[in-house]
Amino acid sequence: MTVSDPRQIPHADPAAATALESTWSDPPGLYGWFAAINHKTISKRFMVTTMVFFVLGGVLALVMRLQLAQPNAGILKPEMYNQLFTMHGSTMMFLFAVPIMQAVATYLVPLMIGARSLAFPRLNAFAYWIFAMGGIMLYVAFLAGAGPDAGWFAYVPLSALQYSPGKGVDFWAQMITFTELSGLMEAIVIIATILKLRAPGMSLNRMPLYVWAMLVTSFMVLFALPAVMLASTALITDRLVDTQFYNPDKGGDALLWQHLFWFFGHPEVYLIFIPPLGFISAIVATFSRRPVVGYPAMVLALVTTAFLAFGLWVHHMFATNLPELGKTFFTAASLIIAVPTAVQIFCWIATLGSGRINVKTPLLFVLAFFFILVMGGLTGLMLASVSLDTQLHDSFFVVAHLHYVLMGGAVFPLFGAFYFWFPKFTGRMLGERLGRWNFWLFFIGFNVAFFPMHLLGLWGMPRRVYTYPAEMGWGDMNLVSTIGAALIAVSVLLFLVNVVRTLHNGPLAGPDPWGAGTLEWSVASPPPMGNFEVIPMVHGRYPLWQPQPEPTHVTGMSNDWREVLITTVTDAEPDHRLWMPSSSIWPFLSAVATTILFVGSIFTPWAVVWAAAPVAIGATLWFWPKRSIVEQRVHSESAP
Prior knowledge:
Elements: H1 14-24, H2 29-35, H3 39-68, H4 78-113, H5 121-143, H6 168-196, H7 209-240, H8 254-288, H9 295-309, H10 324-336, H11 338-354, H12 361-383, H13 386-392, H14 396-426, H15 432-458, H16 475-505, E1 563-567, E2 574-579, H17 586-603, H18 606-610, H19 612-622, H20 627-638
Antiparallel strand pairs: 1-2
Helix pairs in contact: 3-4, 3-5, 3-16, 4-5, 4-6, 4-8, 5-6, 5-17, 6-7, 6-17, 7-8, 7-9, 8-9, 8-11, 8-14, 9-11, 12-14, 12-15, 14-15, 15-16, 17-19
């Protein structure tokens, strides 16, 4: 098979391309910065913001590792250590892992399906502002001495007012509301985009596997995130207005928190894990020079994983007094969910084995994923056993397993995705030499940091302790783990250096530097503001690797209005044209009003009442039609 020239997707004439660029561009100046709604602009902001939180969370982890590097260390007081591990876990789980996956998707999905925009672009902008303001609120509270200290899971009664006085847990609970509201809105945007804005001919069985992964993930978000939003709202009302949802003395139930939290918390692992499966499919196909083997099996594995993910939450609660018979069913489900992941791994191995492999930095991160995920999966099967989990519960063995699954299953593929799509984001190629240094330091540092934690857990070291006596014999392994954490920090620093150097003076990429086969590589790098000068017609799963029979593109789309083509859900047949909204500052102002409501409610319940008016005003003006624009549109469409 030969890779076709990406320029086979037709382009508009220069005048039409110029008009299209002007139509879809955000306004200039300071006003335009706040009013921007173009999906690529918002996505890049999202990615940068989440990476800032990733670095902040990593710094907190490094400080904790320095405290644990030797026995009886005095770098941190126990109160500060509790805040650090709470902030670290909350940052990585709520401010980085899920948002970064959605941020990448809001950039790539429209390009991969041949659309000019996301559905609901203003909602996408609002979701970003809400997310950013929630994260900033949490870190401002932390720096002001009001950081949460009850763990990223905030178990009651430890997170109740009796044991966690002050406002730290209140800020944490409202951060959950911020981030999960943002996540729900992003899921709605992604689902609507995938189901209704695909290019003609891109039926469901022709969608890229990454798009399938994001569709499955987004539906999971709709079912998982409301549970933790409900849980955190009940927690903050228990603390602020004296409700008794989690107080057994007043008819509440402390285990209700664990059920609600882990009903979200275990699917969240797969909200983090499933999008990287889509990254891997794209990278494996490109660098093995052939389509992924077993496309139907891959899609079914994604869907099966999503269904099973909602039946595992109790394996986080094996140490509670739940009925033993019930625990066995969750043990079985925890074992079964390994099957669809194994199916995907076999399909990728078959693809690599039957292709012509071109080993570049993106593929190195994918190959490391295979090794690390298998390690994390094996320890997951061990912890799925009630008897063993009871012994290892709250030990460093669980910390090791968690990081092998989450960092191995998400961060390694994410770095591979950054190296793979960075040319599309910026038009420049990241340095290969620095990329390989980044990879090897990250891979070695990761294993040096987290593999010893398995041994520490088996030797009895509990998690969430700020120090330990020398006679326990844990010092050497903790020192090794801290050295590994330092290597990870150096690796991430090299990645950031690579990014800065590339943005300043990196080699130009061109439309398709890897010879990939999906639609995002058919446009310039970086893409024009309207994505596609003409909407392509799709005739296969890898349009750039296949001959394009007639018709090759859609005609009749306006270049002077923000117009998108709506297609049918299953077969992507053209249905009608839709006018998309213009840039607006009201999503930003509505997010400010919503932030005032959420933050004010931490100090007084009356803030919900008084701040509801600005929120309502912002939402009303957000959707208020501009008569002049409507009249111009009607006039232009009725003109001969």
